[in-house]
């Protein structure tokens, strides 16, 4: 295992895209996504009929091909995040990615993933009005270079596993689990965000090497499918488990961790036996033997978080 001592900007590894999911008929109209649970920002959660209903307050961040704004609903003063993806007619790859994200967001409705409240499309951009997560991302917290205590890491892992359990039951592989895609609200709830490289699998096993992602969090079968048995046979869901393992390790080490697949993995000496056991199940190099979501939700490292709260994460920063 190699530990990189300086946090770095994560560059997406660009690979060819799979055939896009047939897009829902959302073009030129808002697509409302009413949640089962009320949004944490404001319990009223109004439907947004037009982009003119939203007032831009500040820029929250930039992503590949777009910008995220903090916005306010003029009539109710509810706060949202507005993700604006901009592309020209020649940006075919970005358009396919945006269509796929829109299709998935229309169907995802879980308290463990960031909710979409409306979508708007034009010739040059696609806008998502999504749940505003007040405390930013896990990446923002890790940039403070603080080592998280294991009880907080356990709570983070528990929330992400519940989100992945929901997505996988819907046959959705997220494909890019990493700290910047795990957002935190005012209560300390961790939610999965950014479905730009996610996909719906066609069957039990689906090729896992044909879409974008982030190198540092890629599983062996995605990074080198010929060597690690990922070509046309790998379970794409197992790749999300590996990525979560890298995130959990990063939380403990306060460093970006680059794992060399051909070397013996050494566990941090300052970690508990429960933590080390959890990591071994997540970072099993053979995807066939890697821990499953249901197994990991019952792992002693994760179960102990069920008896606490998320207050530790709220106070952590």
Helix and strand layout, with pairings?
Elements: E1 2-4, E2 12-13, E3 54-63, E4 66-73, E5 79-86, H1 92-107, E6 116-121, E7 125-131, H2 138-142, H3 150-169, E8 172-173, E9 182-184, E10 190-192, E11 199-200, E12 213-214, H4 220-223, H5 225-228, H6 236-253, E13 256-258, H7 273-282, H8 293-297, H9 300-303, H10 311-316
Antiparallel strand pairs: 1-13, 2-12, 3-4, 4-5, 5-7, 6-7, 8-11, 9-10
Task: Describe the fold and architecture.
With 317 residues, the chain is α+β, with helices and mostly antiparallel strands. It has a 5-stranded antiparallel β-sheet, covered by helices on one side. A two-stranded antiparallel ribbon has the order 1-13. It has a two-stranded antiparallel ribbon with strand order 2-12. The chain is built from 10 helices and 13 strands.
